[in-house]
Task: inverse folding
């Protein structure tokens, strides 16, 4: 892991410009951080733990971990693009440029490795899981989270425009390498990597139109919309109708299912 800034790097499905991508990541934090933190608390993350956050985004989870583990602990946040994470150095977090597909991690070092919405973009998630496993000490915990888009945009009444953009958007994402099996594939990857005590659950949020959380979906539409129309999958009118609904505070819809998978690295000494 290289302690330098990176102004370039793959953004997986999204390559939407700096400000747009930052806004999307912040909206993602608003949706998913509470459930992630609840799992950390259940795991007992505490003073002195050594933690690795892979795909650190804008850094909210790494900051929470740093506060939790205290001065006796250690938190490393890695990402392909680190400028959004630089502020964490003031809070005791080590920021590293890191490509989890190819760069080595320190072996046998961490009590916890966490990655959210990362493996679903990996062509070979099992190889990535094996890399993450090597970074854990024996008995350490790998906690990965990925989404299943099955219920997204489901509201009290079916809307044809939202149904059309959902189908078109995820078709384009699949072509870019997104795996809509999400956390289901993570269970298999952890099992094949030899993790024990594997547990998994899913959580769904209800999103209100025009809210901070809704911005994630509006930005998704803003980025993928032109690709949908260029491919002839939806019309401009359908995009406009879908956007109007996502801005309407009287409209509520379901998020994706965030599937959390937690496993423990085998400890030969036990």
Result:
């Amino acid at each position: 892991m290289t302690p330098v800034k990176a102004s370039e790097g793959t953004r997986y499905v999204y390559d939407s410009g700096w400000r747009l991508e930052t806004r999307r990541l912040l909206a993602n934090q608003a949706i998913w951080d509470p459930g992630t933190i609840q799992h950390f608390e259940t795991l007992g993350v505490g003073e002195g733990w050594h933690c690795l956050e892979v795909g650190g985004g804008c850094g909210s989870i790494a900051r929470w971990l740093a506060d939790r583990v205290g001065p006796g602990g250690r938190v490393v946040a890695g990402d392909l693009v680190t400028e959004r994470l630089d502020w964490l150095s003031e809070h005791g977090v080590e920021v590293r440029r890191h490509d989890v597909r190819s760069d080595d991690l320190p072996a046998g070092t961490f009590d916890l490795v966490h990655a959210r919405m990362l493996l679903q973009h990996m062509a070979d998630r099992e190889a990535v899981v094996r890399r993450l496993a090597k970074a854990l000490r024996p008995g350490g915990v790998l906690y990965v989270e990925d989404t299943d888009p099955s219920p997204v945009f489901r509201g009290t009444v079916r809307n044809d425009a939202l149904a059309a953009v959902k189908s078109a958007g995820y078709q384009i994402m699949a072509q870019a390498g997104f795996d809509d099996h999400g956390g289901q594939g993570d269970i298999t990857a952890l099992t094949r990597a030899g993790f024990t005590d594997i547990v998994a659950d899913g959580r769904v949020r209800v999103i209100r139109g025009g809210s901070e959380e809704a911005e994630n979906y509006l930005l998704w539409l803003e980025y993928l919309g032109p690709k949908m129309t260029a491919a002839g999958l939806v019309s401009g009118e359908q995009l406009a109708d879908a956007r109007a609904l996502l801005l309407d505070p009287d409209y509520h819809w379901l998020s994706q299912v965030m599937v959390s998978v937690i496993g423990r690295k085998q400890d030969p000494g036990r």
